[in-house]
Known about the structure:
about 450 residues; alpha+beta; Beta-Lactamase; Heat Shock Protein 90; 9 helices; about 60% helix; rod-shaped
Amino acid sequence: xxxxxxxxxxxxxxxxxxxxxxxxxxxxxxxxxxxxxxxxxxxxxxxxxxxxxxxxxxxxxxxxxxxxxxxxxxxxxxxxxxxxxxxxxxxxxxxxxxxxxxxxxxxxxxxxxxxxxxxxxxxxxxxxxxxxxxxxxxxxxxxxxxxxxxxxxxxxxxxxxxxxxxxxxxxxxxxxxxxxxxxxxxxxxxxxxxxxxxxxxxxxxxxxxxxxxxxxxxxxxxxxxxxxxxxxxxxxxxxxxxxxxxxxxxxxxxxxxxxxxxxxxxxxxxxxxxxxxxxxxxxxxxxxxxxxxxxxxxxxxxxxxxxxxxxxxxxxxxxxxxxxxxxxxxxxxxxxxxxxxxxxxxxxxxxxxxxxxxxxxxxxxxxxxxxxxxxxxxxxxxxxxxxxxxxxxxxxxxxxxxxxxxxxxxxxxxxxxxxxxxxxxxxxxxxxxxxxxxxxxxxxx
Length: 445
């Protein structure tokens, strides 16, 4: 069996999704859109609240650091360096800042030199000025999370991520000549943030579940109502189809008995009268012509009776009816007709009749337009659908640029039963005629 190309499967999946979208109705579509929008809003709220909480927690840390820095003694100007000023600043840093959550303190000069640190080995070293320090020189304050892989963090690389707070240290002249960097352990921040994130997602999740339950109840109620109406409509259609089948059976019987039999009697009478005359007799010639007319009428009547008989067969078994349709097609044409029926239960009488008519219309179109040598008829159930595929190996759409009245009326009948009919070109040539209806089992009598 040749595997269906990926593009063809994708096209078929899109077609099925489109059909499902139409089938669920307005309320169903509104519910789906509502659920999707609720999910999107949930994700946006969840991430935005988490991001906002992270920002607020960092700002709170920065405010605490600024309050402590404001209590430090003035940092010495570059031109007023003195051992006493530096010692006083160092004592204040070690007493009020270093320890606890504070891991490291550095004072940066504008050229990237660390002019002071609680770690003596860092003093006097020059690195690329951190972005936070650049921002603090410009605005007075910056806060963020450190990158432990940068060279200036080589002493603290084993600490992982750290909270970095950069605060400007104005000189006596009012100019910002230095920026102090305070690095703090981020464990407490991350723990608080995880607690907030968890609570936010739990709250939003509960709200989303509540919305989903309300929508699910609404959809279920609507589905029950739709199914009730569908069953009611199906019952009316069943009664209508049964009345049609009974009338069709009466017409078949009347045509056969009331017209077919007298026609044979007429033919036998004409043939008997002609036999009593010479072949050259003008009356005999006219009788022969009349006999030919009667034979043509008989052949036409037989064809119509076959079609009516096959539609009656759809009421007793769809597989049997389609099989007889295939046999008739083989007998009248050179087409190879392969029939595959994959049904474990019999569909309703209305579905059987419409599927038989669709199969007959599809095969007739193949005979008229496709210039095909073979056709495959596949009837099967997929999920909640009864599907008929009629695939040929003909010339494709070149012979079917304008679908005829038969196909148009077939689409209208299927649309009235919440189904659809489509024509799709095949990669190897030919057309696939697909007709589907909601699968409704035969109602027990």
